[in-house]
Amino acid sequence: MPTHRDIDDLNSLIAVHKKNLARLKLQKAKFGTLNVPSPILNQIDDEEDAIREIERRIEESENIYGVH
Questions:
Q1: Is the separation of the CB atoms in 4 and 34 below 8 Å?
Q2: Where along the chain do its domains lie?
Q3: What's the pLDDT tens digit per position in 3-62?
């Protein structure tokens, strides 16, 4: 059963992933629309996926255990 501490830790992870995502999007903008290297695009996708997964885990915990 997740605790409030677990949820706080997950929210901290989201903050890290969002910071990484912001940096990657800045790099993407510097390259322009057509010249973005594939690794940057892949990393953006990975960070967005990680954020969605952690948000899903938090929501699931709230629904199952009533942790807010």
A1: no
A2: 4-65
A3: 888 899 999 999 999 999 999 999 999 998 889 999 999 999 999 999 999 999 999 888
